[in-house]
Amino acid sequence: MVSVSAFKHTYSTQNNMSAVGSLVNSLACLWRQQCARTCLPHLFFCISFTGSILKATELVPESYFSSSRNVLNLYFVKVSWGWTIVLLLPFIFYSNLYNRSHTFVLRRLTSLLVATLIWYTCTETFFYIEDITGSCYESDTMQVIHGDITTKSACKKAGFIWDGFDISGHSFILAYSSLVIVEEMVPMLHIPQSDRNICLDCLYIALNVIVAIWIWMFGCTSVYFHDIIDKIIGTSCGILAWYVTYVVWYPMAFSPGLPPQQKQHA
Q1: Catalytic one among 9, 146, 170, 265?
Q2: How confident is the model at residue 10 (pLDDT cuts 50, 70, 90)?
Q3: What DSSP element (H or E) covers 162?
Q4: Of 126, 231, 238, 223, which is closest to residue 181 (Cα–Cα)?
Q5: 245-262: per-residue pLDDT in tens?
Q6: 102 part of the active site
Q7: pLDDT tens digits, one per residue of 21-60
Q8: H or E element: which one contains 124?
Q9: Which of 102, 190, 226, 265 is catalytic?
Q10: What's the pTM value of the predicted model, to 2 decimals?
Q11: Are 232 and 154 in contact (CB under 8 A)?
Q12: pLDDT tens-digit readout, 184-221
């Protein structure tokens, strides 16, 4: 006979799985709205511009998120690309495997390699621009300059202040990462609940949570940090990188390809 404790455990597990499945369906309903995906790039521009105006007018008071030491910045944004890769790698594998071949899945996984190359190239370029346009000062009064120190890292290591053209890496990576994740989550809009498993559902929920964190922290960056030109350029780079890959290149034959769409799951 089945013990009462075993029955309760089974019942609890089924309830948890049902709750997870319901949450996934609700999230899928949100992203199934075409405007939710197509308006996201415009949303980032609006947040960046509006946040910059609020920063310039000092209408938003200091808060926990105005400090770069806040927990979301330290443990999520600072390693944002790591979170993106760790969650997207298994998700792309499982979600793209539905009614598709392993060859197709491997081809789709190369999109993460492309995205990582874009992330690395852009961030290194931002660092390089800041180095060649900046100078090292002894204090924030900008009166005493150390001409012998030519890089930001050396200046910071010496305990001084570097002032250069600081394109917002946060604006770039948070916008770009969010757009990539939303594109890669599309298969979940068409996979029937009966063909999903708890692992895939949990990955989908985690990716939605990460997107929410990225958008929130993008807003905090816009309101509390950088000049408007730094944020607009960073945001533009993120959106342009997404557009060139997912809108222009990936629909072509010789590319990682787009995530499976509805007609491919039929």
Answers
A1: 170
A2: very low
A3: strand 161-163
A4: 238
A5: 999 999 999 999 999 876
A6: no
A7: 889 999 998 898 888 888 999 999 999 999 999 998 888 8
A8: helix 102-133
A9: 226
A10: 0.89
A11: no
A12: 999 999 888 888 889 999 999 999 999 999 999 999 99
What does the buried/exposed string (b/e) look like for 120-146 if buried means 16 or more CB atoms within 10 Å of the residue's CB? Answer: eebbeebbeebbeebbbbeeeeeeeeb
User: With contact defined as beta carbons under 8 Å apart, do 259 and 187 qualify?
Assistant: yes
- Strand intervals (E) in 64-142: 135-137
Give the other-Cβ count within 10 Å of 117's Cβ.
Answer: 10
Of the candidates 10, 13, 31, the residue with the CA atom closest to the CA atom of residue 21: 13
Joined tokens for residue 191: 């996979």
Half-sphere exposure of 63 (CA within 13 A, CB side): 13
Active site residue 226: yes
Separation between Cα atoms, residue 158 and residue 223, nearest integer Å = 30
Lookup: tokens for 70: 């806040």
Distance CA 243, CA 223 (A): 25
Assigned token pair, 29: 């309903």
The tokens describing 47, both together, are 């947040």
Highest mean pLDDT among 10-19, 95-104, 198-207: 198-207
